[in-house]
Amino acid sequence: MTTTITIDECAAWLSERDRFLIITHRRPDGDTLGSAAALASALRAAGKTAYAVNNAETTARYLPFIEKFHAPDGFVPETIVAVDTASPELFPDAVSKLIAPADIELAIDHHPSNTLYAKRTLCDPSRASCGEIIFDVISRLGELGPDAVSALYIAVATDTGCFSYDNTDAGAFFTASRLASLGADIAGLNRLLFRSRTRARVAIEGMIYSDMQFLFDGRAAVVAITNAMMKSSGADEDDMENIAALPVSIQGVLAGATIRELRAGGCKVSVRAAPGVDANGICARFGGGGHTAAAGFTSKLSPEELRPQIISVLEEFIAR
Amino acid sequence: MTTTITIDECAAWLSERDRFLIITHRRPDGDTLGSAAALASALRAAGKTAYAVNNAETTARYLPFIEKFHAPDGFVPETIVAVDTASPELFPDAVSKLIAPADIELAIDHHPSNTLYAKRTLCDPSRASCGEIIFDVISRLGELGPDAVSALYIAVATDTGCFSYDNTDAGAFFTASRLASLGADIAGLNRLLFRSRTRARVAIEGMIYSDMQFLFDGRAAVVAITNAMMKSSGADEDDMENIAALPVSIQGVLAGATIRELRAGGCKVSVRAAPGVDANGICARFGGGGHTAAAGFTSKLSPEELRPQIISVLEEFIAR
Question: Which residues, 6+ apart, have CB-to-CB distance to B264 below 8 Å?
Answer without folding.
Answer: none
